[in-house]
Amino acid sequence: MAMFKKNPKLEIDQQAISTIISEGCLIDGNIQATAFVRIDGQVTGNITVEQGLILGEKGMIKGLITTKQMVVHGQVDGNIQAEILEIRSTGRITGDIKTASIQIEAGAIYNGNLSMA
Fold it and tell me: Can you say whether the dihedral through the CA atoms of 10, 92, 104, 96 is positive or negative?
């Protein structure tokens, strides 16, 4: 019966984005959000997002990041704490990572300590 059919889980890249920081936007300060956030601009400050964070190819973050899910296409200079972390081929991270699940594509660059919990 259709009532017992499992709904397919959406990938983080396919989630509805509630906040977008577009390319060319510069933010100097902390960000807190409850839903999904996409950053294509530059942020200097700590970021806390309850659901998920997508960092676009031209996006750059300098600060501490805490979120449930994260996909990195851009550059991070700071520590990341996420349950699920994906570093795509264009992603670059300098800092420590604490995560339960990590996926790193060929071509991605990561320099730091990794803690799996």
Answer: negative
Q: Quick: pLDDT tens for 43-96.
A: 999 999 999 999 999 999 999 999 999 999 999 999 999 999 999 999 999 999
Residue 12 near residue 71, CB atoms below 8 Å = yes
- Predicted TM-score of the model (pTM): 0.86
Phi/psi-derived region of residue 46, left when phi > 0, alpha when psi is between -120 and 50, beta in every other case: beta
CB-based contact 79:96 (threshold 8 Å) = yes
Whole-angstrom distance, CA of residue 11 vs CA of residue 98: 21
For 100, the token pair is: 């339960």
Domain-wise residue ranges, the chain: 13-116
Task: Name which of 78, 14, 94 is nearest 108 in CA terms.
Answer: 94
44: which residues sit within 8 A by CB, 6+ positions away? 26, 27, 28, 29, 62, 63
